[in-house]
Amino acid sequence: MSASDQTLCFHRPRLVAKKVLANPQSEGDGAVVRRSIGRSELKILDPFLMLDEFAVSPPAGFPDHPHRGFETVTYMLQGAFTHQDFAGHKGTIQTGDVQWMTAGRGIIHSEMPAGEGTQKGLQLWINLSSKDKMIEPRYQELLSQDISRAEKDGVEVRVIAGEAMGVQSPVYTRTPTMYLDFTLKPRAQLHQTIPESWNSFVYIIEGEGVFGYSNSSSVTAHHVLVLGPGDGLSVWNKSSKPLRFVLIGGQPLNEPVVQYGPFVMNTQAEIDQTIEDYHYSKNGFEKAKFWGSE
Length: 294
Hints:
This protein has 294 residues and is mainly beta. It has helices spanning 3-6, 268-279, and strands spanning 16-21, 24-27, 31-35, 48-56, 62-67, 70-78, 81-85, 90-93, 98-102, 107-113, 119-127, 138-142, 148-152, 155-161, 163-164, 167-168, 177-184, 189-193, 199-206, 208-211, 219-220, 223-227, 232-236, 243-250, 258-260, 263-265.
């Protein structure tokens, strides 16, 4: 398809504005992650705070740690992870499952591998608006078989949030978000609309593909591609192997972001208060006083 042909798909096709390779780094207790958003080259992409591709083998993991002021979305690509928190919630997500956790005013939890071998997945942090930062924590868990999916012309999509190829996710997102897991067979192409006011990016899980214009250079796995403005994205798999990537987009909050590790608020005073609340087990962290994961 020529560049002129692409205008038939979108009024303003989104092009790759920035490309960053997510190199492995240590995180948690002996775990290894590839961090794309949340590193020095790409500190934040409003409303997204962080994206990690993790690969964890027991006994490594992410033992007891707190959160406040945002949401975490954990998507298992291989294996299983067990989650426990100080409110008594406990569960295991398997390959293809999603846990959408709204930390709100405060959560302390652990995330640990539930089986032998390497457990792999993606974890995305989505900021909450100032009016939602102190809401009560909540969970949405989506089993693999319950994720909306569609397939056509060599393109398969799993719709974790938002809508694609005529199917919609049941997940409620406080910050308007799309989270789409695409697999393109060799020679397949995709044209996906994206709301013009949203920020968006691609993270390539496996394979290689061409993004934006058909004559662009091919991009390989573990790269994050920040997309420029426009109303949609075109993708081509010109290789002989499948291409798998997530396309994630969201409505920017356009609010100040002050982050201290796992706490994300709007002002330094709110961060100082959060540290005090956590230290003294109050204002949302009361249950932390006598809790530890099993």
